[in-house]
Amino acid sequence: MSIDTSTAAHVAHLARIRVEEEELPALAEEFNRILGFVEQLTEVDVEGVEPMVSVTPMRLKRREDAVTDGGMPETVLSNAPDAREGFFAVPKVVE
């Protein structure tokens, strides 16, 4: 597949990028180089290769999913304009 200047102009319009008319041939050539690289990638045999998340083998750090109050309710409530009995107090909005 080859990208011409009208297709490059259309892609630039879709991406909301202003490209001057004299820059379109260079943009089309850049698109063609990108597509050529993608075509090279399709030639690589990846049969039996497991997908990876990172280039270094590592496991994600996990922690117990436990609900807590954060261990500092007094500090959190100290910024509240009104706090009562360990909770934020807000004006009544429903009758």
TrEMBL record:
GO BP annotations listed: glutaminyl-tRNAGln biosynthesis via transamidation; regulation of translational fidelity; translation
Superkingdom field: Bacteria
Instruction: Give the range the annotation lists for the signal sequence.
Output: none
Q: Which keywords has UniProt assigned to this entry? A: ATP-binding, Ligase, Nucleotide-binding, Protein biosynthesis, Transferase
Catalysed reactions listed for this entry: L-glutamyl-tRNA(Gln) + L-glutamine + ATP + H2O = L-glutaminyl-tRNA(Gln) + L-glutamate + ADP + phosphate + H(+); L-aspartyl-tRNA(Asn) + L-glutamine + ATP + H2O = L-asparaginyl-tRNA(Asn) + L-glutamate + ADP + phosphate + 2 H(+)
Annotated Gene Ontology MF terms? Answer: asparaginyl-tRNA synthase (glutamine-hydrolyzing) activity; ATP binding; glutaminyl-tRNA synthase (glutamine-hydrolyzing) activity; transferase activity
Which InterPro entries does the UniProt entry name for this protein? Asp/Glu-ADT_sf_sub_c, GatC
List its EC numbers: 6.3.5.-
- Subunit and interaction comment: Heterotrimer of A, B and C subunits.
Q: What does this protein do?
A: Allows the formation of correctly charged Asn-tRNA(Asn) or Gln-tRNA(Gln) through the transamidation of misacylated Asp-tRNA(Asn) or Glu-tRNA(Gln) in organisms which lack either or both of asparaginyl-tRNA or glutaminyl-tRNA synthetases. The reaction takes place in the presence of glutamine and ATP through an activated phospho-Asp-tRNA(Asn) or phospho-Glu-tRNA(Gln).
User: What protein family does this chain belong to?
Assistant: Belongs to the GatC family.
User: What is the protein's given name?
Assistant: Aspartyl/glutamyl-tRNA(Asn/Gln) amidotransferase subunit C
